[in-house]
Amino acid sequence: MPRNDSRSMRGRKCWLPDGATTTTPRRSSTTGRGWTRTRWTSNGTRPGASGSAARWPSRRSSRSPTSSAATRPPGRSASGRISRFEAPRSTMPRILATSFYPVHHAATGGKRRVEALLRALQPDVALLQPAPAHPDFPGQGYPVDFGRRKRGINWGMFNLYWPANRRIARRMAAEESPAVLLATSIWCHDAFAGLGLPRVLDAQNVDGRAIQERFGPAHPFTRMVRATERRVVRESELIFCCSEIDAELFGRDYGVPENKLRVAPNGVRPPPPGVRDAAAERMAQELAGRCILFFMGKLDYAPNVEALAFIANDLLPELERRMPGRFACLVTGGPHLPDGLRHPLLRYAGQVPEIAPWIGIADLCLAPVFSGSGTRLKVLESLAAGKPVVATAKAAEGLAVENGRELCLAEKPEFAEAILRLSQDPSGAREMAERGRQRVQNAYSWERTAETWRNGLAPFLHR
């Protein structure tokens, strides 16, 4: 079988593509529930095989009348198409979830939500995402990921509009016939138009509102996003959203009826006990004697860049002016610190393997978010860790928390004052943090949200 480089892919339908370039290795994975997945190397061969057995036979030979299930290689369907799956129909996952970004590195709030969604629906779910396929869920990776382009917006939103990716998505849905298609973004919906399969949306934001806050209502990109979102939510048979506020916005902006909406809040899991990070411990020693402020987030996401700009350009200079040498701010997240956002009190730790040790060394957690939609996992995770949180009202939007009781709300003019006040009242800060921890533990668990997802999708699985 020829390599799927840009020349051999042109005009050719292929069920198991390579990555976006010839240097991207093919998927190598283990076996999921009832799904046989084939291991491949970067040159298109199977490990341990040699000669003609190292590659699949040609499409012509696999379609010959003498071909049978006994002689057909695993992973190839009876029609001769190369398939990611070869399993009895009764064991096929009945939900096909689609993501425009790879989920298996759950380093952002959105990825953690999608991973929690997939785990809640096991073993009834398969995942289609940018290559490689997720190691923990049956499914497939499609070859082209525009999300690697980091300029202005997340270009990965267009992944499933690219013809090669779209063909793979549609063929996978048509051949496996899931009971329901589950889009994890409005940008995963259109690829499956016209297939006659019910479509459900898990909406992490009201994207039209978030983009409007960033670009303004008249900007062409805002109008395109709002038009796409309006059509997607009207065509979807069910919509999960993060908060009651988002549910109201879907109804108000797009006329979505209440019976199509389910509130599935973001959640958190308790921090794993005993997790250590030597780099975090060294940072704690370096900053000993200072009040450590902590900010985390995906640093190519515009609301987080805006928040970090406020911290570097306004907040830290004000704190240093009022209490010299008292504060330092620790930042985690990737892919890198945005250009121009530097300050002597800013310590950038990069993308970290486990967030708990870094939250653990913080004295105060910050969420100065001024735009966007949905609910912020950074706030929930900080509260779940038992840390005092200073946040804007926008950051806490949609969360059932009370200002002054579970966290401290402050806008730009009062943000520095709120930090100074809590830093000078450590016992009061600890009491507030404990109330916040209990609130999140009681109201925001992924287990509770999982029930909402399962109950909402159950009617589609039993039709």
What's the gyration radius in Å? 24 Å
The SSE string, one letter per element, is HHEHEEEEHEEHHEHEHEHEEHEHEEHHH
Strand content: 5-15%
* Whole-number mean pLDDT: 81
Distance between the termini: 40 Å
Q: Give the number of domains.
A: 2
Helix content: 25-40%
Question: How many distinct helices?
Answer: 14
Give the structural class: alpha/beta
Shape: globular
> Biggest sheet: strands, sense, closure?
7 strands, parallel
**Quick one: how many beta strands?**
15
**Order of strands across the widest beta sheet?**
3-2-1-6-7-8-9
Low-confidence stretches: 1-90
Description:
The chain has 463 residues and is α/β, with parallel strands linked by helices. It folds into two domains: 6-197, no CATH class; 278-444, 3-Layer(aba) Sandwich (Rossmann fold). It is built from 14 helices and 15 strands. Residues 1-90 have low confidence and may be disordered.
Name the descriptors.
463 residues; Rossmann fold; 2 domains; seven-stranded parallel beta sheet; six-stranded parallel beta sheet; 14 helices
Write the layout of secondary structure elements.
Elements (H helix, E strand, L loop, with lengths): L5 H4 L49 H4 L32 E4 L10 H13 L3 E6 L8 E4 L7 E2 L1 E2 L8 H14 L3 E4 L15 E5 L3 H9 L4 H16 L2 E4 L2 H11 L6 E3 L14 H9 L4 E6 L5 H21 L4 E6 L13 E5 L5 H5 L3 E4 L9 H8 L4 E3 L16 E2 L2 H12 L2 H18 L2 H16 L2
Parallel strand pairs: 1-2, 1-6, 2-3, 6-7, 7-8, 8-9, 10-11, 10-13, 11-12, 13-14, 14-15
Antiparallel strand pairs: 4-5
Helix pairs in contact: 3-14, 5-6, 9-12, 11-13
